[in-house]
Amino acid sequence: MEGDDEEPPPDLLAECDSDETILAVHNALAERYEVIPIESDEYAYERLQNTKPHLVFNIAERVFGPNRESHIPSLCEILNIPYTGSDPLTLSLCLDKSRAKEILSYHGIANARFWTIETLADLPDDVALPAIVKPMFEGSSKGIKNNSVVYQPATLRERITEVLRRYQQPVIVEEFLTGREFTVGTLGNLPDLEVLPIVEIDHSRLPDGAAPIYSYEAKWIWDVPEKPLEIFRCPAELPESLQKEIHDLVVRVCRVMRLRDWSRIDVRLDSAGRPYILEINPLPGILPNPEDNSCLPKAARTAGYSYAQMIHRVVDAAKLRLGIV
Question: What is the model's pTM?
Answer without folding.
Answer: 0.91
